[in-house]
Amino acid sequence: MKSIIERTDVVIVGAGFTGLCAALELNRAGIDFLVLEARDRVGGRVEAVRNGLGELIDSGGQFLCQDMPELMALAKARGKSFVETYIEGEFITHPSMSVEEAERTYQVAMAIRERMNRIEPDDASIAGLTVATWLERQKDTADAKAAFRSMIEGLWCLALDKVPLWYLIDNDRRITNEVFELQYFLGDTMQSLAEDLAAELGDRLRLNQAATRVERAPQGIRISTGAATIEAREVLIALPPATAAKLDFAPALPAELASALGVWESGAVIKILVRYAKPFWRERGLCGMVMWRDQPGLFACDASKDADHAALVVFVGGPLALRWHPLGEA
User: Fold this and answer.
1) C-beta separation of 194 from 17 below 8 A
2) 279 near 304, Cβ under 8 Å?
3) Torsion over CA of 203, 208, 211 and 212, rounded to 10 degrees?
4) I want to staple 319 with a disulfide (CB 3.0 to 4.6 A). Which of 19, 33, 67, 159 is the partner?
5) Tell me: the pLDDT tens digits for 200-251?
6) Are 8 and 230 in contact (CB under 8 A)?
C-alpha cells in the first residue's frame, strides 16, 4: 500500500523562534507551508515549567536586551510585560576579591577575548588549535585567564579543549550587543511568547513530527518523518547546526557545509531557579550577582519578578554541567 504524500510550498523544520517567525512571514505573504517540530512543544531553547509553588517559570532561554531588536519587537507587539533585571549594588566573587580587583580582572578577560577576535578565522597559524591551547600561550595573569575561561565556557557551554579556535572566533564575532544581555526578561515567560506565535499558525504546525530525511525529488524537495512524507518547493532548516547535522540529506550536503555543521558540539547547561521570601541581598547593598572563579562556567544573578517573587537564577555551563548532570534536583 502506497503512503500518502502531502504537498505544500515550503516545509519549515523546527518550531523555535526562527521557524515560527519564518512561518508567520510566509503566512503574511500568502505562501502555503507546514512547520514540523520533533518535540511536543514549540520554542526550541525556551520552555516553561511550574515550580514547587505552582508558579510558571522559564526553564530555558529567558533574557533579552535592547540590542536584540527583532525579539524585543515581537514581545512588544504581543503585549508582553518586561521585567528589568536588578543590577544595582555590588557583586560577589568566589574566592573573594575586592571590587576593584574583580573589575580589573574582568577588563583583562575582555581584552583577551578582543585579542582572540582580532585573529582571522582562516589564519594558517591557528589551524588545528583549540581555544584551550591558544589560551595557554597567552601571557596574561592566571586570574584573567580563569575569568576568560569561565566567560567562554559559560557562554558556549563547552570545555575550551573541545572548541576549535577558528570556529569560536567566527561565532563569537557575531555577538554584537553592547547592552547587558541580561537586561530584561518577560513577566509571563519567554515560552508564552513562543506559544502566542504558534497560536497564529493553526493546523499548519505539526508537533511530535521529527523530520529524518531531506531529499531532492523531481517536484522539488521531499521531507520524510516517521509518520508522513511531504513534498515541497523549498525547505527551511530552522535548527541549531549540531541538530541539523543529524538529518539524512540526499544527495549529501557539500563537504564544506557538512564539515561546518559537524564542527560544533552541543553544549551542556543547567539552570537552577532558587526562590526566596524576599530579595534579602538587596538590603545588604548587593545586586544578587555571584561569579565563581574556582568553578568555571558558574554564575548567578537576580531573577526576581518583583519583591514578592524574589529569586536568584544560577547558570552552570560546560564541563561543570556535565559533572553535575547525574545529581538529583536537591
Assistant:
1) yes
2) yes
3) -160
4) 159
5) 999 999 999 999 999 998 879 999 998 889 999 999 999 998 899 999 999 9
6) yes
Judge contact between 185 and 64, C-beta under 8 A. yes
Distance CA 112, CA 117 (A): 9
Spatial CA neighbour of 302 closest among 292, 287, 316, 291: 287
Q: CA–CA separation, 184 vs 86, rounded Å?
A: 9
Q: Among 1-5, 119-123, 150-154, 262-266, which stretch is predicted with the lowest mean pLDDT?
A: 1-5
Q: What tens digit of pLDDT does each residue of 91-100 get?
A: 999 889 888 8
Please check whether residue 288 is in contact with residue 301, taking contact to mean a CB–CB distance below 8 angstroms. Answer: yes
Tell me the whole-structure pTM to 2 decimals. Answer: 0.88
Rounded CA-CA distance 238/44 in Å is 10
